[in-house]
Write a structure and sequence with these properties.
The protein has a single domain, classed as Sulfite Oxidase, Chain A, domain 2. Helices cover 22% and strands 35% of the residues. It has helices at 2-20, 38-42, 66-72, 104-107, and strands at residues 23-28, 34-37, 47-52, 58-65, 88-94, 99-103, 116-122, 125-126, 135-138, 151-158. The longest helix is centred in the N-terminal third of the chain and has 19 residues, at 2-20. This is Molybdopterin-binding protein. Keywords: Signal.
Length: 161
């Protein structure tokens, strides 16, 4: 009988361990490569973004603006985002192999009004394990194709001829 009760406890502690050891990596052409824990992200300014699911229901996610994460890594923005820096991009990699791409210009508030966050909650609850612990939310896009589950790294690159 005791073994039955210990198994769920063991599984739950394994999930907590996996999420507590999770790190979002920010690398590539950045001044300061980062590895942000869920705790680190929870201490950053929070922002909301809404997204419709496949059934047309609107869900509100909460997380950190991608622009805030990129600023922490020293990625060019604002007045620095001109000339050669306009050919830089953000590659978002997910644990399931899914990848999406954004130009830095479309993520910069001085150029575009795009709300893109790295979310850790949806409708006030943590993301399901199979969808989290983090999800990219690109609010306002007609298709949620770039709103990716299981985000593991943000890589800044530069288009070269």
């Amino acid at each position: 009988m005791k073994k039955i009760f210990l198994l769920p406890l063991f599984l739950a502690s394994g999930i907590a361990f996996t999420q507590s050891s999770y790190k979002l990596k920010v690398s590539g052409e950045v001044q300061q490569p980062l590895e942000l824990s869920l705790s680190d992200l929870s201490k950053m300014p929070r922002k909301e973004a809404s997204l419709k699911d496949k059934e047309g229901n609107v869900h509100t996610s909460t997380g950190v603006a991608v622009s805030d994460i990129l600023a922490k890594a020293g990625v060019p923005s604002g007045k620095e985002l001109h000339g050669e820096n306009l050919s830089k991009y953000l590659l978002v990699k997910c644990t399931d192999g899914y990848r999406v791409l954004f130009s830095l210009a479309e993520l910069d508030a001085s150029i575009a009004e795009k709300n893109v966050i790295i979310a850790d909650t949806v409708d006030g609850k943590p993301l399901l394990e199979k969808k989290g612990p983090l999800r990219m939310i690109a609010e306002g896009e007609k298709k949620p194709a770039r709103s990716s589950y299981q985000v593991e790294s943000l890589i800044i690159g530069h288009v070269k001829d």
